[in-house]
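Let's do one together. I've listed all components of the complex below, 713 residues spread over two lines.
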Amino acid sequence: MDRGRTLWVGDGTAVAHPLLPSLAVSLGGRLPLLVNAPKSSQALGIILGWVIVDSVSAHVIHRPIDSQKYWSSFAITTDDVEFLYSYIIELGHPISTDKLALALLKHRVEQENSKLRERWEGCTVYQPKAHYAVGDRLVFPALQFATGRVIALRPGRHPELGEFEVIRVAFDDGQQREFAARFPHPHRLNQMDVSDFFSHAQSPEALYAANGERVRAALSAALEQNKEFIRIGDEWFLRAMMAEINIGHLNLAEAVLDMANGGPLTTDVILRDLSLPTEIGQKVQEASLNAALAADPRFDEVGPDNKPAWFLRRLEPPEVLTIPEPLRAVRFFGQADLSDQMLALARELDDELDFDEAAPVEPAQSVRVILTFPHLRAGTLGWSRRVASVLPPSRKPRIAFRLRDPMARQTFTAWAVREGRYIWGLGEWFKTNRLAAGAYIDLTRSEAGDVMLLIDYVRRRPKREWVRVASVRDGRLHLETAQRPVYCDVDELMAVFVDDPQAFDALRERPRDVRQAVREAFSEIAKLSPQGNVHVRTLYAVVNLITRCSPTDVLAALVASGAYVPIGDHYWHLA
Amino acid sequence: MKIFRPTEDTRFHIDYTWFEKNGQDINVLIQKYLTPEQQAQLTNSEAEELLDSVDEETGEVHQMTRTMYLVRKTYAHDPGFINPRLPLAELAFRVFLVNGNQPLTARELAARIGRKPAEVLAQLGGRAVYNGIRPILN
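Okay, and this is what the predicted structure of the assembly comes out as:
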């Protein structure tokens, strides 16, 4: 007699199988003897007034691919590489890491399915209601799909179950166990759709959603080391399938870019003049040219991540290769405790110097930023969190893209430069529109052709107004209130008009730390109001006339100094 | 030799082989739970007649004696059978009789009989074996 594994039917008590714990329901002797218990439950409970056993019954195929261990030790095998090789050959064009990783997962899932199908070949799925003969091979879904052969039959005996059969099964592992057959009563296995086993498995897409990062990393690492594969941007291709690009083609590409003032030109545009054999597919041509251009130091890949574009390195503006002088920042060294309000203000000011690479950027359709003097002087905008939300994510050192001023119907090239986090190429636009430091700039995503962003400012009828004007007197910063024509809406607290920006170049070159810059700026701002109050936004804007530094550094210097006291609403006063 | 020390999470059950090894017959032991009428109806041969039961989850067939079947049928829904005033070991034996000898941890058993797990463990986890109730080693 087996102990502890049986559901004793007919007498009202439920028992779990220790290997496949179940939830069984106790019923009265005159009621149906077996019921379908809920499939999963950790409940200990009382149902119909009697004891229900614990735990979960998971009658699913126990696939390695569903286990934690499988993913923690995930690695690319030789078989995987062979598959990927064949897959790309069949595809005929380069494929992104994401898509390749998903294809690999689909392959792995199919492999497991094949193994299971192979294992069950010639087997009948066991169901208690069915009739079996000696010699039949059975697979048992409720026993982790163990397989065995029927070796004997006998009549079943139970006063309340009527006629049924008992089959003795010899399992492949040598065990012999008995099972009900021709069992007419309700039983969960009798209701099972035996053609639906695979539906229990997670889809490759679901597996990819959960483990994609790990697969991509393993895939990239493995293919990087395999000479048969070539990485082109974020795509993979086979070296053997690449079209031949010779030095003549590359010289021609250089000439094409030269004619376009260095670029940027997308690969397909350059290809038009290269006359590669037409029997080679367009995508293969592009991949081959991309690989050849990437290997030639004359060319720089400056397109967004999803679309390579090329620029002649020798024609790249120096401002995108080295950080423009007005943007070279000084950091505050020292200790200062910034309050939550101060940190919130720093976030609101959204300076690229305070950009946290680790924090994810939420995409946005449109943003408004405030132009500060260093950027006005350098012809740039900060690639701050707000600006990043309208730009496509990129891991490249620099990307060139088209900006359009829809009001002026003017399109021009700008560069997003990772080192220093700035967008360069706006100097002429600033000058044309006579923008002042403190002006609001609107950036909007564009879906139109090659234009990535729309740029605009808040226009207004030109009018002379009393504004904060900065100048250099006796080699020192000087602020005053004076009348100047204003052509755009500005942030009142941050607007600073400068008549002679060049004069500030020399002032900025003088070595000065953040504390000193704050001291110089504070005293100048304070004298403009009768109370001598200074708002942090104004201080940040004015400090940046003479020293490029972030809002948090300005606040830290302010707090650490001890010479100033906060009087509320981000206003400070001399102590 | 490994020393096995049961914990509150160790599962217990009635080890039927214990009766054979100790020259006892569980069917005789549990007949006392039957009513005089039921006892009178059961002949000796019927008492040990094996019946088949079918596992609800797996369809596997296990066998039990008619005596066991009658005990379970009679008391499965009788809360008075698990009377908290009874000695702990007797209570545990009754729990296993009516639940089909489904293994239970000391903690689970304690919850069903209204005792503390440590108490259950002290009684059932020691060297003395009461009516075959033993820990499951694996």
